[in-house]
Structure formats: structure tokens, C-alpha cells
Amino acid sequence: MAAPLTLLVILSVTIRAVLYRSSLAEVISERVEVVSPLTAWKRVVEGLALLDLGVSPYSGDVFHETPLIIYLFHFVVDYAEITFMLADVITAVALYMAVMDYNKQVFRKQKYALEADRYPLDCLELIRSPKEMYYIPLKVAMFYLLNPFTILSCVAKSTCGLNNAVIALFILTTIKGNVLLSAIFLSLATYQSIYPLTLCAPALLYLMQRQFIPVNFRRVSFWWFIAQYAFMYLGSLFVIVGLSFFLLGSWDYVPSVYGFILSVPDLTPNIGLFWYFFAEMFEHFRLFFLCVFQINVFFYTIPLSIKLKEHPVFLIFMQLAVISIFKSYPTVGDIALYMAFLPVWSHLHRFLRNIFLVSCVLLACSALFPVLWHLWIYAGSANSNFYYAITLLFNVAQILLVSDYFYAFLRREHHLSYGLYLKRKDGSEATLVLK
Amino acid sequence: MGLLSDPNRRRALISLLTRLNSPICVVCYMAGVAWFMGLAFEPFTLRTYMSENAMGSTMVEERFPAGERALTTGREFSAHKKKAGGMPVDWLVKTMQARGLEVFTQRFSRKLPFPDENKERYMVKGTNVYGILRAPRAPRTEALVLSAPCTPGDSNNQAVGLLLGLAQYFRNQIYWAKDIIFLVNEHDLIGMQAWLEGYHHTNTTGMDWSPLQGRGGSIQAALSLELSSDVITSMDLVLEGLNGQLPNLDLANLFYAFCQKIGVLCTIQGKLQRNDWDSVSGYSHSVQTMMLMVMKQASGRPWGDHGLFLRYHIEAASIKGINSFRQYKTDVTTIGRLLEGMYRKLNNLLEPFGLLLTDYMLILTLLLHLTVVQALDLWVQLATPPPRTEDGITDKEQVRHTYYFRVLSVLTPLVISHLTGVALYTLPIQFQEMAVEQFPVSETEAVVLTAIGVYTAGLALPHNTHRLLSGEGTEQGWRVLKLVAVLYLAVLLGCTALINFSLGFILALTLVPVAAFVTPHVPKVLSAFILVILSPACTLLFSVFFFQELQELPVSFQEGWLLYLSVISQGILDHFLYGSLVYPLIALLVYPCWLLFWNILFWK
């Protein structure tokens, strides 16, 4: 399995290297869909210039990345392209290893359940065979490395690629069961963009499941584990934040990075839902809706964790999708990360209902983004409403995609416990309806 | 969610769609075409209206008196042009300075990718001369442009004369609130491109030009003047710009309103408007006018010197004076008054022009509806093999078995047809020198013939693809390929139509039927013939003949073929000189898409 992965990595690095050398790189790095005010490389360069002049990089209201990123690029700015390609490769390899490990566990669990005769008889066709699971890790790496969204993001040198690498490493360490590293990478991811904070719920659920700690509020072992994890998480977060303070010698970066993410002052159009809404809103209501929009991102954690408490890895996928849809400055790089997980759920395809519609809409919207942008900004024959309509459609399609996978996953679980061919009470065929 | 998640209703909807597939397709296609033809029928179209109040009335008093003097200046200019053998820069600078303008010059040079045989140029060197009349009444933040090209030979001298006459007259008026820039550009669009790039500090096409020494405010509107005779019978307004962009309708309406007020005959697409829309000949006349406009817009070429302004979001149009055999003549003084009136109205403009909304998208939706229905139908066929079990659950092993093969069988044609497209885009320019050495042809012919050669060679694609594919194509295989191709076509045409409606419409008209009927099971020879007839290159060939027919200048087949070759070379040149998108669009996207359908036809 290592040979195909190596080939894949070589191929994807070649594609990126060719694109870096072409004239397209400049065009791509200006696209609002690919870079956000947080992740734009142009702003990192500006921050570096300010740093070299001995000025705080946050003094100009241009740079909004974290201090660690700017010190990273302070040393490797000449090798920026290699850094970004490396970040993509690290993400892909980490996801590859994580999914391989996860698949082994899924298979082991399925074997125990089969031996214990826990599945109804007519569900045999739902059982996953090792043959079909063999190529899934490779497909995950392929979905990440060859996804046009990832390639665009990497060629634009969007720092989103680095965030993805951190999150992928967090997923890997979590699935491998390493509590300390998991907490450290989670705190790094949180430090980078706040939102990955919601991933602590699936991480905790997964680690507890692995260590056979029951999720029970009355047990001491449950609370003791949470306290341990929280201590490691907060401790490493404290170290990172303190390190940032000592690197810059000031707390400038806190309002400039986290204040910027949470209060959304930059309304440059992007593929998210924030910009148009807050551009149209009366200033009076801004704070209220800001709270509503931001709480929205974190809110889904609770119901999803309750519903998916037995399936933390699927919960990670759902959380990543929710974050990338509802965060304040989303880019296509964020979407690429959760889309890499789609092959892991390939056994759900038979239960998906809107996949055709959704993929058509996603494809059409991706093509329409640059066209409507051109019509709005350059030709003047359309306006911001057109662009926002496509943004809205794009996000609705993403939500449909995610909820479709959610439904399919629950339905498969339902069939596994109640049998595939459901009968109504009167004996006629029953169908499952999501209401 | 109800409709999407309730399986019973979904099944009903899907079966309805599958059953009514072909009638829906035919009806939608017909409705699209009929609606389009209806656009030419006057009662159906909204009366043109002014959306900008400041443009509303023609209440200005035009007083321009100096037509005769302008003609004298024009003759003087002509004499100096002959003496200098090109642009008489020194004379122009002196004359403009004498009229009280701030005068600047800009030199530019450009080497064309291959010689332009229509205009006989290869290494272009020239100078633009422009004078700025500073606004006396307001901060100089906005500007208007009046330009006249300096063309070789005897044409267009009167335009330059009138431009200078207007400059002198405008200088003595005190009501200007915007800078007015009088520009005489050499080598028509190339000079204009250099000047606009210099003015806006951009360089999109790699041209050499010296930076501008003087600038005015941001340009709000521009008119380009073409006038080659002392008296004219009618004025024609040219709107079509680069990539099919059109200026705001208000500008056109303003022009027609002034023509009516002053009593100048004005034509649309070189045709006089008629009032008898209810008669057959009246309707066919307006269809002809509309088709001319559609063809011109679809070509993506700038049809006058104004065409490049539109790229910078500046409303612009070209005004052409036409001298035909009609009795009724208009003199230069009247044209001067017309222009004066227009500039005074533009001077009153308080904010940039608004939007030009297109109501045409519905037509395209109807045409593209067909592809969407096709795609749905194919998806249903693919997703449900005959032994259907409950709620779309299919036999697992079979699906998985064909899955990998499907991906491979779709990916290979896609990659190969796009590589052919890239070859069509790059090879003609790359290989011109080699071709000129090997064959007795000129560079231009070499480029065009290489393009046609690559295009034809692409038709051999299906055989090459099948050699690469190890297994043989299955029923499922072509369905998946067709699904991809149909969706590709729908997205491609939708995006094209958003940018250039006419081009999208013409392509949809020809390519959508192809998408509808192609399967490997139709009669091979006949379908191949139809497919070739409806391919983009043949569409272009027919368009050339049709365009000549519409202009009432029919050509023989021989001449038509030569014209066709020159149209291709012009299209390629437009792309490399001004950044027109039609050639790359056809070569890199439309042609590969068509090749996919060609591939389906020869599926084994």
C-alpha cells in the first residue's frame, strides 16, 4: 500500500509545482473563494515585512494570522511553496494512517458483533468486507490531495492548508489513542482558528471508548478522564499562548486574531454566509446576530454528540463539515478537509438520496463563483445579490450533503439492529422517513 | 425536506420524468427558440426606458457653429498625415496646444504573434496623442473621453477635424464639471489598448508602452468617432465590445433621443428602423437586425474602437457616419451639435451608470432544461438496474464491480479530449515557424491551417481512447460518460451565457440537440454527419455565410471559405492582442465537450 501512496504524493506534488510556476498562481491567490482575510498569503508577507521593520505585525489591521505562523514563516519564507506542499502531504498521510487504523477497528468490532450474532439475518449484505475496505485509506488520501479545492488552496498559499495539517494530526493521534498528543494538537488547532474547539467532544468520546470508560455522568472515572484531558488541553493552550506573548512581547494578537474571527469586521465576499448578512444589517442589531451566528457553529456539538455518542469518528466528520459551513471566514480549503472523509462512508452510498442533486449543485456553483464575480466586479451587469445567491445555494447543497450522510448513517445503524426489510404492523413493506 | 425525503413521492416524480422525457425535451427546445424569436416582435419587448433621471431629457441648447472650420482642419490633418507617412504627432500636439488643451503623447510598440493579413501589420509602432480639457467647475475627479482613430489612407480625417473643432468650442464653455479628454489613437484598437492600459496602470497583454504623463479623473463614459465624408446620410451606433460586452442602454437611448431631436437619421446595425412591426416584412426586418446583433455579440470581437473601454467598466460606444445614396444629407455642424448635446448630458451625470439587466436567461434555461432532464433520466437509469428492490436498494456486488471500470472509462476520454483541446489552443502559434519552413504557406495561413488540422485530428479520438482502455465499453460505461458530458455541457453553456448571452445561445442551439440524441445505438454514418454539422467549427462556417447574407452581401463558397479562414485568424489574434475569451473558450472547453459526445457515438 505504500507504493500507490508514494505515487499519489509524487503526482500531487508535481501538479502543485507546475501550477506554482504557471501564471495561474497569481490569479488563484487573488480569488476570494480560495483565500480569506485570515489566510491570505499576501497578508502574511505584509506581516513579515512589518516584523522585519521592528513594528508589531498587527499594527496595520492587515495581518490576522497567529504569532506562531508568522515566526514559522520568518524562518521558512524562502521555502514557502515547499512548506505548503509539505503541509498538504502531511495532512494526506495523517488521514491515510488514521483511516487505516479506524477501518481495522471497525472491522474488529463488526467481527465481534457477528460472532455474538448481534446482527439480524437479512443484514448480511450490509456487512463490510475487508476487500472493499482495503482501498479506502488510499482513496481518502486521493480525495484530499487531488481535490481541486485543496490544489487551489495550496497554490494560493492559503494558510488554511497548515490548519488542515494540524487538524489531521489531531485526528491521527486521537485515533491512535495518544491522549497527550491529541490534546496538544487540539489546542494548536484551537489556537489557530478557535472553531476546532468543538472537536474535543468527539475526541473525548473516542478516547473513552478506547479505554473502556463508560460515558456516564455519575461515574468518577468519566469525570477523572475529562479532567485529565482538560488539564492537558488547557496546559498546552496556556503554553502556546504564553509562547506567543513572549515572542511578540504584547497581547496585540488576541484582539487582532480572535477578535477578528469572532466579531467579523471584514466583510469581503467569500463562500460563507456572514458577509452579505452583516453588510445588509442595521448596525443596531449587529451584536445580537453576531452572537446568534457564532453560537450556531458551536451549538450543533451537543445534539450531535448525544446522537452519535457511539460513533465518534463520524462525529468528527460532521463537526468538520459544520465548522466549514458556518465559520466566519470559510474557504474552499476547509471544505476539502471534510470532503476527504467521504470515501470512509462509501458503504452508505446505497442509503444516500440526494447525492446526485447535491453534487450537481456543488459543481455548478463552483463554476458559477468566478463567473458571477466577473459579472459583478468587472462587467457590472450583475450585483452582489447574484453572487450571494450562489453562495447560499452552495451552502444549502453542503448542508444537504452532510444531512444526507447523517441520515444514511443513522439508517444503516437502524437496519443493523432491526433488520433490513422492515415490515409495518399490518405486514406491508415499511419505509423510513426522516421528519 | 418533504419532497426530497419521502421515497414514495420521489419515485412518482422520477417515473413521471422518465416517461415524459422526450416530449419535455422537444417542447422546451421549441419554447426556447420561439421565445427567442419573440424578442424581435415589438409588442413583446418592453419599450426602452431611461433608468437614469439625469439622462432623461434632451433639454440642452446646442450651439456648435464651426462645422466648416472643422472640415478645413480635417483636410489640413490629412495633408500632414500624408507628409509624415503616419500619425502627424508634432502637428497634432501643436494644434491641440493652440486650442488650449494640456497635450501629452504616448508611444507604444507591439509584435503580433503572427502577421495580421487583414490589416497588413506585424511589428506595430505608434504614438497616441491626447489633450485634456480641465474641468473649470468641479474637482477633477471624473472624465469623459472623445476619441477618433488615425487610420492610414484617406479615411477618418473628418473625424479628427471634428474632434479638434469640438475641442476648441468646448474650451470656451464654462459649464464642464468633468475633464474631457480628446484622444487621437494610432493603429485603432492596439493604440487604444496601450492608452487604456497606461491610463489604468495595468498590463494584461504584455504590450510595450511609455507611461502617460498626464491623467484626468476616472473615466465615466467614452465615445469613439468615425467619420470619413464631409456630409453623411445617417449615423450608426456600434455597441458590441470585447467579449460581447454591451454598454448601458441609457447611452444608446441618449444617442437616439438626440438624433430625433436634431433630425439626424440613425440606423441600428446599419439598418433603418421600420414602424410596421405588424407586417411580415416588418417582422423579418427586425429579426434580421436582431440576428446581426446576436452574431456580432457572439463573435466576442470589439466592433469599434470603444470596445476595450467596456473592460474597465466605462460605458462607451462608437459613432459611425455613413454616406450612402439617400437624398437627405446631414452636414458636420449638425453632427458637432449632436456630440455637444451628448457631452453636455454626460457632463450632468452624477453617478456611474446603473446595471444592464438581462431578461434573456429564461430562454437559455428553457434550452438547457433539456440537458438537465437528460441527465436526470440517465441517472435514474444508472441508479436502478431492472431488478429493483425496495427503496432504491441495488445489488451490491454488481454495483461495486462496475464502479472502478466506470471511473476509468470516463476519465480516459475526459483527459484525452482536454489534451486535444490544449493542443488546439497552443499548437497553432507554436508550430507556425516550422510550418512555414516545411510548406509553401504564409505564417497566417500556417496558423489557421494548423488549427483546422488539430481540430480534424481530434475526430480520430474514439479509436485512440479505446486502444488505451483495456476492457471493452459497457452499456453502463457510455451512460456514465454521457451523464458527465451532459452535465459538463449544461454548466459550460450556463456560464458562457451569463457572460455573453449570444454566444451561449448559439452554442446551446447547436450543441443541445447533440446532447439529446447521441447514443451508441443510433445509425452511425448519419449521426456522425449530423454531429460534424453541429460541431463548433461548422457552426462558425455557417455563421460566416449567414452573417454575410444578413448584411445583404452574399458570397460564393470560395469567398466564404477564405472569409472563414480570416475569421479564425482574427479570432486567435483578438485573443492574444486584447484578451478576447472566445478562442480559448472554444478550444479548451467547448471543443473537448463536443468530443465527448463524439466519443459516445463511437462507443464500442
Automatic annotation (TrEMBL), chain A:
GO biological process, alphabetically ordered: attachment of GPI anchor to protein; GPI anchor biosynthetic process
Annotated pathway: Glycolipid biosynthesis; glycosylphosphatidylinositol-anchor biosynthesis
Sequence intervals crossing the membrane: 143-172, 184-208, 229-251, 257-278, 285-302, 314-342, 354-379, 385-407
Keyword Membrane: yes
Signal peptide annotation: 1-25
UniProt subcellular location: Endoplasmic reticulum membrane
Membrane topology: Multi-pass membrane protein
The UniProt record lists the keyword Transmembrane helix: yes
One Gene Ontology CC term in the entry: GPI-anchor transamidase complex
Predominant cellular place of this UniProt entry's protein: endoplasmic reticulum
Keyword set, alphabetical order: Endoplasmic reticulum, GPI-anchor biosynthesis, Membrane, Signal, Transmembrane, Transmembrane helix
Family: Belongs to the PIGU family.
PANTHER family cross-referenced by the UniProt entry: GPI TRANSAMIDASE COMPONENT PIG-U, PHOSPHATIDYLINOSITOL GLYCAN ANCHOR BIOSYNTHESIS CLASS U PROTEIN
Protein name: Phosphatidylinositol glycan anchor biosynthesis class U protein
UniProt lineage: Eukaryota, Metazoa, Chordata, Craniata, Vertebrata
Gene name tied to this protein: pigu
UniProtKB/TrEMBL annotation, chain B:
Chain ranges passing through the membrane: 20-41, 353-376, 403-425, 485-518, 525-547, 581-603
Subcellular location: Endoplasmic reticulum membrane
GO biological process: attachment of GPI anchor to protein; GPI anchor biosynthetic process
Domain of life: Eukaryota
Keyword Ribonucleoprotein appears in the UniProt entry: no
Pathway: Glycolipid biosynthesis; glycosylphosphatidylinositol-anchor biosynthesis
Mode of membrane association: Multi-pass membrane protein
Major localization listed first in the record, in broad terms: endoplasmic reticulum
Pfam families given in the database record: Gaa1 (PF04114)
Signal peptide start-end: none
Keywords: Disulfide bond, Endoplasmic reticulum, Glycoprotein, GPI-anchor biosynthesis, Membrane, Transmembrane, Transmembrane helix
GO annotations of cellular component type: GPI-anchor transamidase complex
Function according to Swiss-Prot or TrEMBL: Component of the glycosylphosphatidylinositol-anchor (GPI-anchor) transamidase (GPI-T) complex that catalyzes the formation of the linkage between a proprotein and a GPI-anchor and participates in GPI anchored protein biosynthesis. Binds GPI-anchor.
Entry-linked PANTHER family: GLYCOSYLPHOSPHATIDYLINOSITOL ANCHOR ATTACHMENT 1 PROTEIN
Subunit and partners: Heteropentamer. Part of the GPI-anchor transamidase complex, consisting of PIGK, PIGT, PIGS, PIGU and GAA1. Interacts with PIGK.
Name of the protein in question: GPI-anchor transamidase component GPAA1
Phylogenetic lineage: Eukaryota, Metazoa, Chordata, Craniata, Vertebrata
Annotated gene: gpaa1
